[in-house]
Amino acid sequence: MKNNAVHRFQEARWELSLAARSFILALLAGIALWVTAPNSAAQPTNLSTGDPRDELIRQLLQRVEGLEGEVKAMKSAAPNNPAREVSIGSEGADHRPRFPDLTFHGFGDLNYRFSDRAGQNNAFSLGQLDLFTTSRLAENVSVLSEIVLSAGNDNKFSASVERLLLQYSANDYFNLDMGRGHTSVGYYNTAYHHGSWFQTAANRPFIFAFNGILPIHYVGLSANGRIPSGSLGLHYVTEVSNGRHYGPATDATTLSVTDDNDYKAVNAGLIARPDWAPGLQFGISAYHDWLTPAASPRIDQTIVAAHAIYKTSKLEWLNEGLLLRHEARGSAAHYTIAFYTQLAARFGPFQPYLRYEYQNAPDQDPIFSKFGVIGVRQGPSVGLRYDFTDYAAFKVQYDYIQQANRPDANDLTVQVSFTF
Amino acid sequence: MSRPITAKVAVLTLLLWTGAAGQPARPGNPDESTSTPQEEPLAIIVNRKNPIENITFDDLRKLCLAERKHWADGRKVTLALREPGQAERAAVLNQIYRMSESEFTRHFLQGSFTGELKTTPKELATANGVRRFIFNVPGAIGFARVSEVDDSVKVIRLDGHAAGDPEYKLKLPVP
Asked: Which of the 8 DSSP states describes residue B161?
């Protein structure tokens, strides 16, 4: 019994001791909170109780007041210049662009072609290795370059500067490109360049083929931008350039360094992307040049192109038509008509597509009669694109081609195209 | 021996009672206990110096697609998005771009390739990062949950509706 009583007494004393300690701790915490309360900062003199901690608190308060003053001075010194704005953190604070920056992308493709054309063997074919870089030199000035390495029918590789543009962007209404680029004749030539990965089909429509009937590249100036037009979404483009050289197949078609004559090719286009139909685009362009091929009178070349495009993530319907007029001095004008339509639908990674192309150049055309592209060339293509990753696609395409004065041809192309 | 056990039982009972009392009241509407998704407005935020107060959905889409690259005052538009895989980004891609992540990537890659686009959207990991970026860049525009917006940025209306209005279009599904 006595032991129990002693034990209970000890327990009670321990509990009392705990309660007392808790009470003292709570009291100290309350005092500390009261001392450091915001309103206490305004009355520092009330703390002069002789306690050495009061002096420490007073010094800290003075330090805080000093720092507040410094922050106010910095804020008042910072004008509206964004470069001097005060950052308020780490992520998102690294906002200032560094010039020049550099972005690189590569494109490539490998093909296997089956063909029943005379003189063509089935073969693997290494496509173009496209080295694409952009660099911003300043907020409104940038450089775009596209260098393509490819092998010709002689299996020898060569490098070509396909695009090299210095671009100045004043605002949405005026952008100026200087250098070598793709002419804004039609839609396909500006939407798709040398990287075949971007385009749905394995190859370009033959009316937009490189070294085909059109001036694909320009060397000169191009201005483009929006036109205030409300929901119609009008854009303009104008180009002044050296034009295209029509000559033997061994000649370069783009006049990168010299021109065949003093006259400059001009091109003007109007494009509408209406707000009320996202994905819809239609446009028209007119191109004019003087052509002066060897041993030939001057030829006026006029190309009118029109397109109607509907392109969303699920559906793609491309329609383009061309009218080419060639008039040799003192002769009658000759007209070439060309068009294609391409329809594709996407089902997940699969995208089947159909294309029909047509081109009809008159026998007497002063340009095309020299290159053997006269008469009707037409035919359908059917294919399937399979994007097996976000950056690589497998395509298989069948082309049936009817061409005047030549036997009909059947081509089957299997392609792997990619970007990196 | 019996007293400590009794004390332990009492303490345990007290803990259980207080724990139960701390639980939120059971909802009266049985639907609330299901996993029906709710929506939280996704605010459109710009730098405080940007004079814009309202934007139409069409204009917002053009800004996001980089079809329009400058504000009315001439400042260059810089888009700030969350990183791939985050709900805010998914909502923007789904409701404004109407694109998947790969289509979004391809859009800007092709825009760069054609020469039309000079920059790509800035990607940030947190709402705090988006706010800080917009605070620092006068022409920036981005998106954040209404609950994560503070005074460092400015919230603008969409088609005349403030975030939180029933007619406000841009919403973030909350599971």
From this structure: B
Rounded CA gap, A16 and B46, in Å? 61
Domain coordinates in residue numbering, chain B: 39-173
How far is it, in rounded angstroms, from Cα A376 to Cα B52? 57
Using a 10 angstrom Cβ sphere, with 0-12 exposed, 13-18 middle and 19 or more buried, the burial of residue A146 is buried
| pLDDT per residue as tens digits for the range B57-96 | 999 999 999 999 999 888 999 999 999 999 999 999 999 9
Tell me the C-alpha distance between B83 and B122, whole Å: 9
What residue of A is the nearest CA neighbor of B131?
A92
Q: What residues of chain B have any CB closer than 8 angstroms to a CB in chain A?
A: 49, 58, 61, 67-70, 74, 76, 80, 98-100, 102-103, 105-106, 109-110, 112-115, 118-119, 122, 124-126, 128-138, 140, 152
Subunit contact A89:B129, Cβ cutoff 8 A: yes
C-alpha Rg value of chain B to the nearest Å: 23
Q: Which residues pair with A323 in a beta bridge?
A: A304, A337
ipTM above 0.90, yes or no: no
The residue to which tokens 């949405």 are assigned? A172
Please name the helix (run of DSSP H) or strand (run of DSSP E) that holds residue B106, with its range, or none.
helix B101-114
pLDDT at A83: 35
The CATH topology of domain B39-173 is D-Maltodextrin-Binding Protein; domain 2 (3.40.190)
Q: What is the CA radius of gyration of chain A?
A: 37
Residue A242 CB-density burial (10 A; 0-12 exposed, 13-18 middle, 19+ buried) = buried
Contacts of residue A226, Cβ cutoff 8 Å, sequence gap at least 6: A172, A173, A233, A234, A235, B68
Query: What is the distance of C-alpha B97 from the center of its chain?
Result: 15
State the number of CA atoms in the 13 A half-sphere of B95 facing the CB: 18
Band of pLDDT at residue A66, cut at 50, 70 and 90: low
